[in-house]
Design goal:
365 residues; alpha/beta; Rossmann fold; Dihydrodipicolinate Reductase, domain 2; 2 domains; 9-stranded mixed beta sheet; 6-stranded parallel beta sheet; 29% strand; binds nicotinamide-adenine-dinucleotide
Amino acid sequence: MTTDIHGAPAASSEPAGLGVAVVGGGYWGPNLVRNFQASESFELRWMCDLRIERAQRALGRYSTVTATDDYARVLADPQVAAVAIATPAATHRDLALAALRAGKHVLVEKPLAAGYAEGRELVEAAEERGLILMCDHTYCYTPAVTYIRDLIASGELGDLHFLDSVRINLGLVQPDVDVLWDLAPHDLSILDFILPPGMAPLSVAAHGADPIGAGRACVGYLTLNLTGGAIAHFHVNWLSPSKVRTTMIGGSKRTLLWDDLNPTQRIAVFDRGVDLTPPAQLSEQTRREMQISYRSGDMVAPALAEREALRTMVEAFATAINTGTPPPTDGRAGLRVVDILESASRSLELDGAPVALQGTKGTSS
Ligand SMILES: NC(=O)c1ccc[n+]([C@@H]2O[C@H](COP(=O)([O-])OP(=O)(O)OC[C@H]3O[C@@H](n4cnc5c(N)ncnc54)[C@H](O)[C@@H]3O)[C@@H](O)[C@H]2O)c1
């Protein structure tokens, strides 16, 4: 792309793709820049950061894309069809709302917003205008998570009984959010993505600790009750000296173990478990006569493609804009995750008492 003498991107007669701007050139924004630039569906026109040197650095020395610290100029560009926001969560609502009001499609980094009411405002603003609002729930675009969702949908695991997830490492202690808001969006968005229709979280109980005196929870545990009696548990931790990324999903037929740090065998599906054969009449006495049997069948490790999730996510954003259909992780999916996070924060204040979710599942656009 060329720039005019005022530093604005010059209008080209034939746009190379959907004009897009990235806002926020800190840790994550440069990954969006790289993937939008690699995509033939988009033409990156602006990189915006309040600290212009970050915008310039995200683009690199030889880029002809325009760096700016003036968001209004980005929104005023009629060739910008979409804006991708990679700034801290507290700024998501204002930046996304301004873009939607300017008629732009919006991609927002996780979490969608800093609270449920703000998130709902964004969902409504997008729906009123017929614009795409997408949340970058990156993991949902990995081959592993897509495989897990398809396996559950096919009935291979049977009825879901439990999900147990660990996401711990020596993490950056964030200045603005606790470990639940920083790391749990990944796991909660995965849960939202893989659950079959008709199954949803109902309530959340959260426990947290701040053993280093950071002023916010650095270690967190979430327990979610799901419809049908299933349970999901998440452990997130910034203080773990070793990195662990595992999720176990137990079903009535099979159990799946996903170890994201094991590229040669990310997923293993075990035909192993416990079966219970109750007598025809279940009373306190016959309960003792129940037959417990242990299955110890095969373990299958499927071959998974290795593909950068952000690349797939960026293409899903383009498809949503071009077809006018909601992307897999639309604003409502983002809102369901924020619903759980906000309820978890309330539960933390209540010393871990379960808090019912405001409930948005089933109203997906
Ligand atoms: N999808 C993922 O896997 C993933 C990974 C990391 C972070 N994130 C998300 O990305 C977002 C950004 O996180 P980060 O770690 O890059 O933060 P960061 O603090 O490193 O960078 C944020 C940048 O935004 C800029 N900024 C702040 N307010 C702005 C405004 N009003 N206009 C323009 N620029 C502004 C800051 O100057 C900074 O450069 C967060 O929502 C975070 O949760 C997502």
